[in-house]
Amino acid sequence: MTEVRRIMHWIDGKPYDGDPDRFGDVYDPASGRVTAAVGFATPEVVDRAVEAAAAALPAWRDTSLTARSAIMFRIKELLEDNADEISRIVSSEHGKVRADALGEIRRAIDVVEFACGIPHLLKGEYSENVSTNVNSYSIRQPVGVVAGITPFNFPIMVPMWMVPIAIACGNTFVLKPSEKDPSTSVFVGELFREAGLPDGVFNVVHGDKVAVDALLTHPKVAAVSSVGSTPVAKYIYQQASTHGKRVQALGGAKNHMVVLPDCDLDLAADSAVSAGYGSTGQRCMAISTIVAVGAAGDLLLEKMRERIGKLRIGPGSDLEADMGPLVTGDARDRVVSLIEQGVREGARLEVDGRDVKVEGHEEGFFVGPTVFDHVTREMTIYREEIFGPVLVMLRADRLDDAIAIVNENPYGNGTAIFTNDGGAARKFEHEIQVGMVGINVPIPVPLAFYSFGGWKQSLFGDTHIHGPEGVRFYTRGKAVTSRWPDPTARGVDLQFPGSRRA
Predict the structure, then answer these.
(1) Tens digit of pLDDT for each residue in 477-492?
(2) Which of 88, 183, 240, 438 is 20 to 30 A removed from 407 (C-alpha atoms)?
(3) Residue 490: what pLDDT?
(4) pLDDT over 50 at 1, yes or no
(5) DSSP tag of 31
(6) With contact defined as beta carbons under 8 Å apart, do 158 and 151 qualify?
(7) Strand bridging mode 9-11 / 14-16
(8) Contact 324/97 with Cβ under 8 angstroms?
(9) Sheet holding 134-142, edge to edge
(10) What is the tens place of the pLDDT at every residue in 113-126?
(11) Which string of b and e fits 117-144 if b means at least 16 CB within 10 Å?
């Protein structure tokens, strides 16, 4: 371990080493080599971070909205100025190609830009003379110390779904990023300090379930946001809510793309390949399932083959590469195992990505684009979230059958329909039981001024993430009723408050 760099926690505005005996390996997915060791937080380290956030809370909560907004503007500028360096860090630990990393950073910056408008977003309501000389108004106040638990697949975008809005609302934050690609969060902490964010407002603790459990049970953590698989999301929701915390826990997905015969099939094929294999399929909003209606399936499959054959697979540092490796060797092995399971269960393997080799990176965690056709709902490759470059195609006779397939699936994150029929699109939009819907758009992720979130087993909690619902999650409402009576008109009044009509 002395030959690799050490990735430390970020607590109270500076690096913190923590327990030197608890650490994990960080890999370069393209080479398969260990490049760093990340410290794993003990409960004592988590407590140190939470206490730093709690100590910073009173002053930050009382900082004016305009001052908080000014810091958000500086953070936005620093993220833009350092986008190339952040993309390099992301690619080196996640494996995604540089263009994909830059796209992720752009979406992160969009949320910071939304948070720059916090003075407007926190405006309340005011009613004059609700009773004689009585006014009522509402305000929103921060909830306190909040925590974020984020996955490996978007090491900057997903934390930025949470952090800018939470701190702009006046909260302080403790982030537990994925231990698979932890460096981005520490670099962001350095940028936040450079932007003028006070020490302790943003903290990072690395680690495993020990760190997660310490955050979920800590008495000074008021709210928890998380993104991860459905079993993890359910666990976080149950544990945190049991300990009295507000929770939003986004879970897994099995996103369906319904293709009707009347659609622009070239657009559909472009979209399926882009949305299925971008970031090597390691997106919670990736299209993983195609439902081809009627005659659309054979024609679509032929066009997809043409596009898949032109994809360039390589390391994230290859600026010409379209698709990089999976994040770890375990992730690669799991995807390969599921492909083999699909073959055993009788699905038709149309494109096989198991034997991909990248020259000079033979030990990398690569799996190529893979396509199964004639998949049934009972098959493992349909029921499980593969989280890799594997597309499965189901067949349906009618639009109603396709809608039933999507609605009966336990996940409800995102879905899309490709059609030139406005009536079919409206029917789909109205009847589908999914949180985010695309019409001729394969990945319907809303921009930062709308909120992101799924239905069913894809979300545990009452609110979606970022956007207006993010502001509501990170604040609590308070209603105030005030009277400034005329000193000449005082007297005893035994009526119920607010009941006087004149």
Answers:
(1) 999 999 987 777 666 7
(2) 240
(3) 65
(4) no
(5) T
(6) yes
(7) antiparallel
(8) yes
(9) 126-131, 134-142, 475-483
(10) 999 999 999 999 99
(11) ebeebbeeeeeeeebeebebeeebebbb
Question: What is the distance between the alpha carbons of residues 277 and 269, in angstroms, rounded to a whole number?
Answer: 12
Q: Nearest Cα to 55, choosing from 112, 9, 11?
A: 11
Alpha-carbon distance 344 to 355, whole Å?
Answer: 18
- Does this model's pTM top 0.90? My answer is yes
The span from the CA of 301 to the CA of 33, in Å, is 36
For the stretch 30-49, pLDDT in tens is 999 999 999 999 999 999 99
Give the separation between CA 184 and CA 203, rounded to whole angstroms: 13
Residue 124, classed as helix, strand or coil, is coil
Q: Which two tokens stand for residue 178?
A: 């994925």
Q: Does residue 475 surpass a pLDDT of 60?
A: yes
Instruction: List, in order of start, the domains of the chain with CATH numbers.
Output: 5-251+458-479 (3.40.605.10), 255-439 (3.40.309.10)
**pLDDT value of position 489:** 64
From the DSSP assignment, how many helices (H) and strands (E) are in the chain?
Answer: 16, 23
**Per-residue tokens: 418:** 């490709």
pLDDT, tens digit, 9 for 90 and up, residues 45-98? 999 999 999 999 999 999 999 999 999 999 999 999 999 999 999 999 999 999
Cα gap 281→455, rounded to integer Å: 21
Amino acid in the structure at residue 280 = T
From CA 164, how far away is CA 173, in angstroms rounded? 10
Q: In this structure, which long-range contacts are made by residues 339-343, counting pairs with CB atoms below 8 Å and at least 24 apart in sequence?
A: 339/367, 339/370, 339/381, 339/390, 341/380, 341/381, 342/372, 342/375, 342/379, 342/380, 342/381, 342/390, 342/392
CA distances from 167 to 6, 31, 135, 225, 240 (A): 28, 37, 30, 13, 20
Active site residues: 284
Look at strands 145-149 and 172-176 and give their pairing: parallel
Please give the full DSSP string across 133-145, using - where no structure is assigned. TEEEEEEEEE-SE
Alpha carbon 256 to chain centroid, angstroms: 18
Q: How far is CA 258 from the centre of its chain?
A: 24
pLDDT digits (tens, 9 = 90+) for 170-216: 999 999 999 999 999 999 999 999 999 999 999 999 999 999 999 99
Q: What is the pLDDT of residues 259-296, one digit of tens each?
A: 999 999 999 999 999 999 999 999 999 999 999 999 99
Residue 133 reports pLDDT greater than 50: yes
Residue 497: per-residue pLDDT: 63
CA-wise closest residue to 288 among 198, 194, 224, 369 = 369
Token pair 């916090």 is found at 118
Helix locations, 177-250, DSSP H: 183-195, 209-217, 230-242
